[in-house]
Structure formats: C-alpha cells, structure tokens
Amino acid sequence: MPKIIDHDQRRREIVEVAKKLIIEGGFEAATMRSIVAAAGYANGALKRYFPSKDSIIAATFQSALAEMGDRIREQGPEPDEPVAALRRYVEAVMPLDKYRIDAARILLALWEHSVSNAELAELYRDHLRTWRGRLAELIAAARGKGEPVDAPAVTALAGEVINASIGANVTCLMYPDGALVPEHRAYVDRFMRRIAD
C-alpha cells in the first residue's frame, strides 16, 4: 500500500524550516538548497510544494502574520475595556519577548525582499492597511471621545504605533537578547498614558 503523504503538512514543515533559517542567518540563509537540506528532502521534492523561492517566502510571510494573530487570540477574548484591549494589541506588535524578536527577524527580512517583489509588496501593503484599520478602531474606542476611526488624531496615533513598532523591531535585531525590551515597554506605557488623557 502506498504511503499517504499529507501535502499541507509538508508545506507547513518547509515554511517552518525557512523561518528557522531566516531567524538564524537572515534572508540570504534561506536558499532553496539550504531549505531542502534542512528539511531533509530530495532536491526535486521542494518544487512539488513551492515552485520558487518567492513562493516559499510568500508562504513564510503569511505564516508569520497568521502566527502573530494566533498569539493575540491565544491570550483569550479581547478585554471589554477599550484601553485594556488597545494595550494588548499594541504590546502584541512590539518585540517584548523572544518569540516576538524572532518574528521581527522573519518579517523584516521578508519586508526587505518585498521591495523587489510585487506580490509580496501587495501582501505587506494589505497587512499594513489591516493593521492600521484595527489600531484606529481600538484607539478611537480607547479615547472615548466619539471620534470616527478616520479622525486625524486617531489616524496619527495609529501611524505612530506602526512606526514605533517597526522601529522597535528593527532595533531589536541588534539586541536579540532582549536588552531593549524595557525601553519598548516604557514606550507602550507612555503611549497608553497619552491615550487615557
């Protein structure tokens, strides 16, 4: 009887190998050859699941974003109190622990690659639109002033969080031991105090 292969599981395994290689050595470390070797597949086997490195990278990017969403949901239902819900969301996108520092390494490598890849660039732009929209909803609710999500003060604060998060994720690459975590936590505290005022 022929062996039944779970192709979706194989794709997930390949994506996990690509993530591990990117965390350890950056985007350049995730070559087709290194992925095949680390995954333990024959050279031609990878093409059955991903026709190109770009297709692996796109799947890796989507997987990293999905994992971030899963981790937010694993924290339980969103708090009913708007300020607490906003804090949880802001903390989720800051590199405040080893998992999020590793996720930053993956996402930043993929963002850089997306500059020259239209499909990845559109995935990233879509992610940014979704991220900005959710932040604006949470900020408007936390401010409690009845502002629409597209009010200038709300969109400016959403942009600030995005820019601060991306900056924190970039700087944490130089301090993978978490040395900047206290600084990033202090930013979140300052931001939340401003929202509450």
UniProtKB/TrEMBL annotation:
<dbReference type="InterPro" id="IPR039538">
    <property type="entry name" value="BetI_C"/>
</dbReference>
<keyword id="KW-0678">Repressor</keyword>
<dbReference type="InterPro" id="IPR009057">
    <property type="entry name" value="Homeodomain-like_sf"/>
</dbReference>
<feature type="domain" description="HTH tetR-type">
    <location>
        <begin position="8"/>
        <end position="68"/>
    </location>
</feature>
<dbReference type="InterPro" id="IPR036271">
    <property type="entry name" value="Tet_transcr_reg_TetR-rel_C_sf"/>
</dbReference>
<dbReference type="Pfam" id="PF00440">
    <property type="entry name" value="TetR_N"/>
</dbReference>
<dbReference type="Pfam" id="PF13977">
    <property type="entry name" value="TetR_C_6"/>
</dbReference>
<keyword id="KW-0805">Transcription regulation</keyword>
<dbReference type="InterPro" id="IPR050109">
    <property type="entry name" value="HTH-type_TetR-like_transc_reg"/>
</dbReference>
<dbReference type="InterPro" id="IPR001647">
    <property type="entry name" value="HTH_TetR"/>
</dbReference>
<keyword id="KW-0238">DNA-binding</keyword>
<feature type="DNA-binding region" description="H-T-H motif">
    <location>
        <begin position="31"/>
        <end position="50"/>
    </location>
</feature>
<keyword id="KW-0804">Transcription</keyword>
<protein>
    <submittedName>
        <fullName>TetR/AcrR family transcriptional regulator</fullName>
    </submittedName>
</protein>
